[in-house]
Amino acid sequence: MLKQKLTSWFKSGGAGAPLYLVGGSVRDFVLGRPMKDIDLACPNARELAKKLAKANNAAFVPMEKDPAAPCFRVVNRSDPTDFLDVVRFRGPDIHTDLADRDFTINAMALDLENGFPQDPMGAILDPFNGLDDIRKQIIRSLGRKNLKDDPLRILRAFRFASQLGFEIEEKTLADCRELAPQLERTAAERITHELITAFEAENSYSVVRKMWKAGVLLPIFPDIAPMEACQQDGFHHHNVWEHSLDVYEALEGVLGGLDALFGEYAPQVRECLEAGRTVPMLKLSALLHDIGKPYTGRYDEAKGRTTFFGHAKKGEALARKALGRLRLTNKDMDFVCLLVSEHRHVEQLAQPVVKHKTRMAWYRKMGDFSVACAVLAMADNLSKQGRMCTETERSRREKHLMEMVREYFAEAKGALARPLLINGNDLLEIGLPKGPGLGKVLKAVTAAQDAGQVKTKEQALALAKNLHRQIK
């Protein structure tokens, strides 16, 4: 695949000048992983990229945000996903370029001056034994200075550990621990990218815990300190932060067992959870879902334990502040904050004593996000291992939450997709006055429609008139 792609761009065979495939492109080629980007390095990046663009009738796109490392993208006009990134050597030659990179597994190069090599594995330039570290599944930095020069590389070490399933070499891990406070001077957008990419891996829990142990998470989420200091009793057996890590772990277990948990509805659940960045945002929600507890804890002498009434609402505000520091998109921020604010509510709604009409109103408010919220609540439930929470109780709550998800797909989603029987104009036409009361009536009629209590426009209007008389 790589050979075919490069051959399609370099139709004459080779570049005819010093040119190397570098960085993660070489690593992924060795590992047989799909390549997201093809990174090329040479001494005259701008000139080569322009030449390639002209020869292939492609677009030439300068990407020079970092003057020290300008990148020039050559894009296939017919297929924007087909592109090459060409960068200038970091120094006078390829050897100094590789020495300036982050990890041994990313400090390899493949010479393309004369075309794609017949024996590419044998032609890899590997001055720092990256191939050996790939075989050993080790992430090893090129030195403490390389990490200090760009502290984001600390996070990248854990991101690669999460993506590749590799272990971070001990000296590198020690350097990451020592330099972790330097992350405070790193651009929030760069940090967010690395975090989210790490969270995208199916089994990232062990890496997230190592990030915490290495002190890497605290500069990013200073709220961890009060969470770690906040003890819990009753339903929990860990402090708030340890419990949040437990929920993260349990969440990955739930996500890996959707078929067993939801049966025939598993494909629909999976479709909801795989939309956009739902999974990494769901995992971020697991870490922040109890962020409000340190500020709402009160010891209840009658109950003999600490309670945290209102922690979800307080948590929503704190989560929004924390995510604002990370420069998360408004869409992602709203999703995480919604789950933080609703993670307790959904567990209460799942109880059999709750009226179907009440749940329908919540489904209308949440839409497909109700599925993610229920899944988060299931993980939270599994992590409640305190003296007041028995296995029987956990099983009961899990069953109710699963039934709620099934109800959403079997009944609610279809019902909510149907057009509303009436709107505000209809109410005005039958003589209802403008004002707050109009909205209350419309909301009540909508809830009655969702519950199947009214099925025609005439029935809806009749109910509206009756409700209006009661409000008056």
From TrEMBL:
Its cofactor is Mg(2+). Keywords: Magnesium, Metal-binding, Nucleotide-binding, Nucleotidyltransferase, RNA-binding, Transferase, tRNA processing. SMART domains: HDc. The keyword Ribonucleoprotein does not apply. GO terms for molecular function: metal ion binding; nucleotide binding; nucleotidyltransferase activity; RNA binding. Residues 240-363 form the HD domain. InterPro entries: HD/PDEase_dom, HD_domain, HDIG_dom, NT_sf, PolA_pol_head_dom, PolyA_RNA-bd, tRNA_CCA-adding_enzyme. GO terms for biological process: tRNA processing. It comes from the Bacteria. SUPFAM superfamilies: Nucleotidyltransferase, Poly A polymerase C-terminal region-like. PROSITE patterns: HD. It holds the Pfam family HD. The keyword Manganese does not apply. Belongs to the tRNA nucleotidyltransferase/poly(A) polymerase family. This is Polynucleotide adenylyltransferase/metal dependent phosphohydrolase.
